[in-house]
Design brief:
homodimer; 295 residues; globular
Chain lengths: 295, 295
Amino acid sequence: MIGIDWGTTSFRAYRLAADGRVLDRLERAGGILGIPAGGFPAALRAAIGPWLGAGEAEILMCGMVGSRQGWVEAPYLPCPAGPAEIAAATIEVPFEGARVRLLPGLSTRDGAGVPDVMRGEETKLVGLLAAGVEGLVCLPGTHSKWARLQGGRIAGFATHMTGEVRAVLLEHGILGRLAKPGRSEAAFARGVARSGDPGGLLHHVFGTRALGLMGDLAAEATADYLSGLLIGHEIRAAWPRGAGSDEAVHLAASAVLAEGYEAALGQLGATVIRHGDDVVAAGLAAVRAGRGGVR
Amino acid sequence: MIGIDWGTTSFRAYRLAADGRVLDRLERAGGILGIPAGGFPAALRAAIGPWLGAGEAEILMCGMVGSRQGWVEAPYLPCPAGPAEIAAATIEVPFEGARVRLLPGLSTRDGAGVPDVMRGEETKLVGLLAAGVEGLVCLPGTHSKWARLQGGRIAGFATHMTGEVRAVLLEHGILGRLAKPGRSEAAFARGVARSGDPGGLLHHVFGTRALGLMGDLAAEATADYLSGLLIGHEIRAAWPRGAGSDEAVHLAASAVLAEGYEAALGQLGATVIRHGDDVVAAGLAAVRAGRGGVR
């Protein structure tokens, strides 16, 4: 089969063996934002034509390709949900020469009834479930997801807009005028520590500017201080502590993001269990198996 | 005398009587960002030439005109500080035909040693001090200031980046793609209420998007929901409650901002004492009096 993670700005495809092994892979920049109306079948064929030519006839796709802005909308499926429910909620789209299905995103509601949504990350979570993972999972990113895996299903989750808030503040806010390119692990750790002080996030973020103006933070350390501050706030809100047990956190991320989150989680006392970023291929294979088993 | 509040994007000038009454005023868009290097004396003369021609010979200026990006930097003065200390820290700049002085900004440090700064708002606070105000003051804005007035001086303050975070999220983030122009008091109140739920600001902000995607929040109500959410977080962090007394909040803001902050403060149980937005002229007069008395 062919498994595809087709997001807003990226396209990742995997040629998978019947047992889920990755036989081949390709990645390109062609995210859904660049696809004209009605252009999805042609874009798909252009990307994976050789695999189709070699006889592949089943394609499973996850990510924003199944959103309102994508090929066809595959409506959000409410939690709890596992590979079987996700497989049953796939949407088939017409495509000559292969069976093409889109995975749904997931939705959940918190105690106050406020909804949350994911699209693409559910497939990574299914990949972790397939590897036997249970408990609390963090998938860092523009919109970080914290999910609970329980009984072979995704019980619920919460999204934190950490990466986007960092990006808009640095690219369009006053902190961007202050910051210069550079890295500083010490500043990152200082930001993580600051996130535990009173005053709140909106005050702490302004403090980044005040520290710079008063000569207490180098311009080259501004971005990493801000990262530590925001990731620290995210973890303190998302990671339940002090209730008798400090739960281990399963972390699945690209190397760059994993490094920062692992450092911050460690600084705050969490045990981290790292997983690769490539769990999406395992998730696509598991969803296929969840529906019809391995054919 | 002439009092001027010269900010990043605006220029407000007051012709003041010896007793501080406003005799005349003018406002223009010519903020310091639009002034070329060395261009401040000419820009000042162009703006208030008629008043100089009428015999005014003393000019006090506050705001970003006294910053590193302004005419000359008037260094930050540490809190606690009142009109006398501020007057003593003014910086005189050469200008033919009048004595021109720039007011310093203020700095403070919190219990953790993290600095905070203001420039321009200290003059509004001096205006409130001149009117006999003591206690907790909120000056809402792009960078909202919460200050404590005590014994005729500004004891300390904290800045919250509320307005800027709102603006960059709506203008450059994913919420902006969702939001449509519109007003909704009910959505604003819902955002204020949401700010008290668990989960943290970064999660609550993403919830704005999820509410929209799930059809639980109209596109026209998105901006006001986000405002209520952020202002709610600001107030909950800045307004000390539950320690025996719920302190009244002095609010000085333009009509538009005051409306939202008054509603949110009221919703959270605070007594609000409103002051006009025009306290800066009173502050400029008080700083002059604080130094040399009325001549």
